[in-house]
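OP here, attaching both records as promised.
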Amino acid sequence: MLDCKRWSSVSGLVLLVLAIGCAPKREPVFQPAESSKELSETHQKQIHAALNKYFGTPKNPVLKLAAATTDEAGESVLSDALEPEHLKYGAQVFLERCAGCHGETGDGQGEAAPFLQPKPRDYRKGIYKFTSTPYGTKPARNDLIRVIMHGSKGTSMPSFKFISDEEMQALVDYVIMLSQRGEVEETLANIATNDYDPEDEIEAEDFERAMTRVHDRWVEAEFQLVRPYTAQPKMTDETILAGRKAFLSRGCSKCHGTDAKGQTTWLSPLYIAEQEAKPEEEREKINLDAWNYPAPAADLTAGMLHGGRRPIDIYRRIYSGINGTPMPGFAAAFQEEPDTIWHLVHYVLSVVDGREVPGLAEVQPDPPPAEEGSAEETPADSTPTESSPAETVPAEPVPAEATEAIESTTPAAEPAATDAQTDAEKSTPDNPDASEPSS
């Protein structure tokens, strides 16, 4: 005979599970940005209504732009920049595959986010670290596709090569919509703060201009690809040694260290605990990124380049810098010596691959200049940390057709990719990370 108490407990558990399973799912809601929360109630309501008008809701997203025509009330007619069903499909893919880390509405606050380092991207700022476009501009569409397809080495971002092209295109459009929505919200919050009194009505033209400007910057990014000044020279021991010398003399080692190990100590739990235990005025000053997280210079010896390890990826990091971080661009510094960027690329690749180069260990920083009054002279070949020739004209960039070849080029020691591989997928059997994304 069954134990009545045991049967009662089991029955209660079954009923509880059924009740949870039958409970309606909470519908995702766009979370307001901090800048919006600080506004008056009047402006919060206006901006919320405008965002719903232009972008819809997570369940029924849209992307609308003001057309040149007006309605009977004199207001601009809105038209769909993308098919609503296409965006809705992208939202479904996002909620299924991305929301666990990036949050239901792209704020980077998914359930897994507290346990991840580095933190998942908050799309609402519209800032993407690793792009093929200049510093401060939006990423190209292919930048987002690459990171989704290949993941990001050294982070918790996995590869999604298995999703269909239809899913990929819809997902990318939805992510771009999330970014545009966040940027428009931030723009409107700034306008409300700077141009209006708390109880004023924000004019319709301000909403339209904010939407148009943000959307146009994303469209323009597709035509702003960073192309190298010169074709990549063959990677040799000599170009690697030249890159090592530039690494030490042109400012790279200031953050990445002479050993190229970077500042990743900042991310260790022990370091963080030690700093938090100190009074704020005694804590070490560290660099933060646009999301207010520690932004240490990368440990190149770890072999994990988040922005991709193709030569063209590394070139663009050096040329443009990294959006949202203290990493500057060196395009101006190398205007008169453009091959130096390629030499740095070769040195970085040699560090990542652990390549042994005769004489590399002997290349060390120049000794500091002698103190004033000392009999010693400053070495004649000492170089300023960074040069900024404001009046010089950059070398002519490599033509677009030549850049296509550069993008698919790997060091001479690596076999060429097959014709069946796409540009984003080119890698080597020994170095599968050669296709690492750039977003």
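Record two, same layout:
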Amino acid sequence: MKNNAKILAKSLSSFARYLYDAASFSWQIQRMSQDKPIGIFDSGVGGLTVLRHIRTMLPAEDLVYVGDTAYVPYGTKSADSICKRADQIVRYLIDQHQVKAVVIACNTATSAAVQYLRNAFDIPVIGMEPGLKPAVRLSKSGTVGVLATESTLKSEKFQHLVNRFGQETRVITQHCSGLVELIEQGKQAADETRELVKHYLQPLLDQHADTVVLGCTHYPFIAPLILEISKGSVEIIETGSAIAKHLQNVLNDQQLLNDRFANGSIYFYATQYDAATRSKFNMFWGEETNLQSLDLDKPWVETPIQNELN
């Protein structure tokens, strides 16, 4: 009996150790997943408006931002070419930075590629969409204006939004050719930009739009011009904060939130890099960045964030 008891006690002890080791291993795997960075990309500096909201809402997360400056603007490209470019960027983010989630910080790229990316990669992929739903709720005149690229406005995704939320509200759309290029040149407050914004905005104001949706992540940089031209008569809707909150919820549901107390790091990459690009990123971000060059067509080299994670 004593021997049996010893054997049983030893077996129970071994089983307890097994459970402890399994739980410890599971915790380590979860911890490793939580420590992975989040990837964010856009055609240029526009996605920095989304990155700012993510940084504010999720300060503990490491973030890797890719501005595809060699291919800007996306709004003039075909959906197929944007999808291929998005595939290259996401593969880079996964292969070289082991990101745990990707945010497409661009309405045009979301329309073209979000479904493909979700099918192709086994990580959360968060996309953008114009904030038509909150705009309809906010509007008192019953007329909402949408400023976006032509590609976004022509997309099936946007038409679905209008059909879903614009049944009892007049939705006036305006594609804004040339605005992204001016913003990318750092001319967001220039006279020529003011005149172009007025050209696009005035028809909305003439039709009594009291709410304007910014359907491009570059456009928050011209929000001061919109308020100036409209004399403060419109409410501006941009969705960066909502996207950051959605990302937080997705990561929390999948137990991927980084719960450390220290602030995470941010790494910036541009696919067309020179001194002017670096100055532009610093200006729009509001402080010095660690911007590096990224050539998607060349073999990738080990990156600083890899060294920290490995």
